[in-house]
Structures are given as structure tokens and as C-alpha cells.
Specification:
two-stranded antiparallel ribbon; eight-stranded antiparallel β-sheet; mainly beta; 196 residues; Pnp Oxidase, Chain A
């Protein structure tokens, strides 16, 4: 069996998801070290053991002609690049991203701080543009996805029960950034050519 190598089968036992405001973000230009947040990015914390789903998708329409029973080519109609994960930390970054609003401290009489916070959900929410970085690694092999511009496209429901942690399910879709949806980095050797 030519061109097979079990050492190139990959798992993702370690990983992190980071975010930053899209405007002004300094995009990473390398794979990183697998543990340090990129400059200007903050962690979204623990993810459930289902991990992170990264989905690049290209949608096409067939071009049919009179002279052939099969399409002669396909035309790209749309492209998407999405990240889906369920976060388990109720930290400021995860909850603000999930609810689409910012926490403010509640003040008491005379404007004194109370140590309590509130988050107002607008009836007409303003959509926030973010930049997302997903790092994952297996041993010394490091990988990174960078999405320069993205928005939360879908949110799951929070279930409040006695026996399970609160979870924040988010699907984040890439937006166009000068003709790019995102970039993938790795330190695995990809210099080999495909042979027939």
C-alpha cells in the first residue's frame, strides 16, 4: 500500500478557543506554541468533551448542457467557514458572546458599587463582529485556525438542572475579509507531493 503513514493520523487531545474584537485585532501569522493566547485575544474557557467542530463548505450549482446527461462543470454559489462549540465556563467572555450584550455593574444609592451585575438584552440587538482563533495539538504537532471576521450565527439553549453544568452552545460563521474566510496553520511537514 503506497502513500500510507499511520504517524500522520491526528487527534486533538488539547485545544483552546480565543476571541478578540474584529476591529483592530492583530491577526496571528503563525501556528503559536499551543498554550499561549495570541496577542490581544482572550480565552473562551473550557469546551465540552464534544470538542470543536470546524466546517469549511462550498456550495455549487451544476451547469447542465443539451449535449450531456451530466453537468459539464459546477459554479460556486456560496462558501462558508464555521466554528461550533459548547462552552462550559460562565466567564465574562463566554456569557457576553452568548447573550450578545455586555455586563454592567449595578449601583446602589449614591452610585455606590453593589458587586452585582446585569446584562440587558436589547429588543433590537447589535451584532458584534469578532475574530476567532482555534488552537489544537497532539504532542509536538500544533494546528491553528484564524478567522479574521466572524459573527455568532446560532445559539443553543441553556438548560438549568441540578446534575449538569450550564452550557453555552455557539455556532460562529466567518465573514469575508478581503477575499479570505480564514487561515489554517500547522507545524506538520506538508512539503510532500502527491504521487499517482
Amino acid at each position: 500500500m503506497p502513500n500510507v503513514d499511520t504517524s500522520k493520523i491526528r487527534f486533538a487531545p488539547n485545544g483552546y478557543v480565543y476571541m478578540a474584537p474584529a476591529v483592530g485585532a492583530t491577526l496571528p501569522t503563525d501556528v503559536g506554541d499551543g498554550t499561549t493566547a495570541p496577542t490581544g485575544y482572550t480565552s473562551l474557557g473550557y469546551v465540552t468533551d464534544a470538542g470543536v467542530t470546524i466546517t469549511p463548505q462550498v456550495n455549487t450549482d451544476p451547469v447542465n448542457v443539451w449535449q450531456s446527461a451530466v453537468p459539464v462543470l459546477y459554479n460556486v454559489t456560496s462558501a462558508t467557514f464555521s466554528i461550533q462549540a459548547t462552552f462550559t465556563e460562565s466567564n465574562i467572555n463566554t456569557t457576553e458572546l452568548f447573550f450578545g450584550a455586555q455586563w454592567t455593574e449595578v449601583t446602589g444609592t449614591g452610585g455606590t458599587p453593589t458587586g452585582h451585575y446585569k446584562l440587558d438584552l436589547a429588543s433590537t440587538p447589535a451584532l458584534q463582529e469578532i475574530s476567532i482563533v482555534v488552537d489544537w495539538s497532539q504532542g509536538s504537532v500544533l494546528n491553528r485556525v484564524v478567522i479574521p471576521r466572524a459573527m455568532v450565527q446560532d445559539r443553543g439553549a441553556i438548560t438549568l438542572v441540578r446534575t449538569a453544568a450550564q452550557e453555552y452552545q455557539l455556532t460562529i460563521e466567518a465573514l469575508d475579509s478581503n477575499g479570505v474566510l480564514g487561515s489554517v496553520f500547522t507545524n506538520q511537514d506538508m512539503s510532500g507531493s502527491v504521487t499517482p
